[in-house]
Design goal:
This protein has 423 residues and is an alpha+beta fold. Helix content is 14%, strand content 34%. The protein has a 4-stranded antiparallel beta sheet with strand order 8-7-10-11, with no helix packed on it. Strands 13-20-19-16 form a 4-stranded mixed beta sheet, with helices on one face. A hairpin with a 5-residue loop joins strand 17 and strand 18.
Length: 423
Amino acid sequence: MRSTVVKHIGRSTPPAQGTTPRHHRSLTRPSARLLVTALSAVVVAGALVLPAAASAATVAHNPKGSASFSRSSNALTCKGRAYDPDAPGRALKIQYIVDGKVKQTVRAPAYPGHFTRTWPRSWFSPGSHTLKIKALNIGAGQNKIIATYKVPAQAPSLTLKPYVAVTTGKAASGVTVLKSIGGWPRPTLSASGLPAGLRLNPTTGAITGTTTAKPGETAVRVTARNAVGPSRSATIEVVVGRASRLPVTSPPTQGVYQTPANCAKLTRLSCAVEIINIQLRIEGYTTTVKLPAGYSGMSQRDQLIAAVNAIRVAYGLKPLVKSTAAMNNAQAGAVAGRDPDLVGVPGGMASVWGIGFPTSIDVVLAWLYRDGPGSINLACTASRTDGCFGHRYALLDGYGVRTVHVGAGYDPRGGYTMEVTWS
């Protein structure tokens, strides 16, 4: 702090004798202090100058936010938030940008600024794209990209169910051919070979309409297309079932079953089960066959009985009871390569025989579903029809309330046999 020195000016000679002494002194006075809030004082040439007040601090207004994308086969959706931390009560504008072009500018809600948007397919042409979401500032800050997403272009992929079933004369409901579909943009579907009266929804894959076609099965070709890559096609069995159950002792609708197209991808056993279930549906049954656990590890003879009984249960029939006598007699027939001997059996008896089949399930399919005109049944030909469906009737007859016994035989050279007896 500066001081101002004020000196008393006088003579420098000592005072005369006898006079009252006077002090010679110098005085030092501190300068006055000036207190200024938020200002500074500058003395210039004896004048006090106050500078102008400082300007208020600048507010940034830089947006903050984030967003995420989710993509299904039919839609692209983003969810996120955008807000201004310097003015949380004010809503920001956000922009949706595709490949550098602003498609839409909207206002996000006020803090916390959550938003959801499904991007219309009309915003995209086929191919890959870069999507961005930008939050716009409300002051002097910087606009901010809060999310970026790359949409890959994908050629169609298509997986169909093994088969679908409808009922003749009844409107199809809840029937879809799709197991899965892929591709971006989502492919559209078309079908060829549908039974009369049925239509395929090109987006959902649902079958609608009412068919008056006869019960049976039809192979239908389904194709998925989009503008990105090659189309994909697959075949599905469309099964038209009876409106009411067919009695098991009546001639079935089909004398010879058809092998579903997808059997090429299945094991022999799985294919056989699918064929049986399709035939059940054609005949008006909504039940399915269920082979017992451990079926594959059984002997050929026991597999014959297990398969026939599983099918009988699906038709609502009682299972057959295995007996030692029937098993022995059936085995003797298999070794001899012919039907079991009917002699010496009390009560009634029916028998079946087949040769040249790779597994037991194959011969069961032939006995039950490949037994009519045009089949390999030796007793069902153009000149002889008395034996048509005879194997089927022998294995699927209800036989009243009797206890029915069964036996089975197998010999690699003589084939497969089954014997049903009752008393």
